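Give me the fold.
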Amino acid sequence: MSYKTVLAVLDTQRHAAQITDFAISVSQQFDAHLIGVHAETLVAVPLIAPMEIPDPTAVEILQESAQRETMAIEQIFKQQTVREGIAAEWHSYMLAAGYASTSVQETARTADLIVANQSDPSKPDHRADLETFLFESGRPLLLVPYTLKEPRPIKRVLVAWNGSREAARATFDSLPFLKLAASVEVLVIDPPERGSQSPELAGAEIAATLSRHGIAVTVTTQESGRNTPAATIENRLADESIDLLVMGGYGHSRWWEVFFGGVTRSLLDSMTALTLMSR
């Protein structure tokens, strides 16, 4: 298994260069084709009172602004891919449904991996449609922290494992990265007592499966104690200098609505490592 088609979501001009760089890095690593995507949501049409007819001047200004941003993002993407000699193509959309449109979803579902930026909690964006798109795409998602400005080698990987369907999907979707990593740690937090398995053996089966792929893997079981699972993972990321976190995505539309049954936005708001999610 490898990533042969990578899709970069370039939602704003502010993040375009950063996400293109990371998507190029992944594409070069796996000799993949790169698709750049930007979807502009048509805004509500301003009305003129009292007749409530569309304001043509305002509509024209909004459309021109959206077109300028789309063109600027496209230029950034094309300049960087040409410079690096990457096989790439560009798709832009201006639709009422934005990223939730069928056209954008169909493109996303043909990719092996989607690369997108973390939402910067200090700079609220119009990301509701984008978040729904990312979760409904059905494809693994590589989130790039807004604090991580340049790609770096993925040497150390942490797999957050709780035995769920989502965690399994994320783990196997991340195999191309795991096979190239110097070390992979399977982290099990607060493992339950089961009749057929002691807490100490939690994670042993997935570790054995990964080792059959030639992956250097270790298993760590840890009690969260007074910390939340999210805080426990954050501490582990920092202590072990982790480059990539792999975890299942839970919930429905918003990616922060839960990890390990409801642990939260805090984990992704304070991202320090690349994070691969699947659901």
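The first helix runs from residue 13 to 30.
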